[in-house]
Amino acid sequence: MTSGRSAWSSPTPFPASVGAAAAVLKAGHWRLYADRHRIELTPQPRRTCPDCRGAGGWWVGGANPEMEACSCWASRRELRIRLLPVPAWPDEPPF
After folding, report:
1. % helix / strand / coil in the chain, to the nearest 5?
2. Which residues pair with 40 in a beta bridge?
3. Is the pLDDT assigned to residue 92 strictly greater than 80?
4. Fewest C-beta atoms under 10 Å: which of 8, 33, 40, 75?
5. pLDDT number for residue 50
6. Burial of 47 per CB tally in 10 Å (0-12, 13-18, 19+)
7. Contact by Cβ (8 Å): 32, 49
């Protein structure tokens, strides 16, 4: 006799863990990028920063203006995990 409930219909913790990971990344001001070759975590500017006000930096004047990065994100490390090697392009065309 069956209970009417499939073994595959039980809830999994996957959605909760994804939501928790998204909350941690947002609270720590990180951007997540993932594809089959790498996973990258890059720092993001803080909206509450009194220096850049979330813009990430400011423009330094002169003949050739350049953007000076704010220390709220520029001094933090970028984290990268390599998963699969990127395939090499052939030197010659295939025809």
Report:
1. 20, 25, 60
2. 33, 80
3. no
4. 8
5. 92
6. exposed
7. no
Place of tokens 């993001």: 44
Beta bridge partners of 66: 60
User: In whole angstroms, what is the distance from residue 25 CA to residue 60 CA?
Assistant: 30
Give the pLDDT score at 9.
Answer: 52
Q: Starting from the edge strand earliest in sequence, which strands make up the sheet with 30-34, in order?
A: 30-34, 38-43, 79-82
Distance (Å, rounded) from C-alpha 80 to C-alpha 29? 16
pLDDT in tens, 29-73: 888 888 888 889 999 898 899 999 888 898 888 777 888 899 888
Q: Which residues pair with 60 in a beta bridge?
A: 66
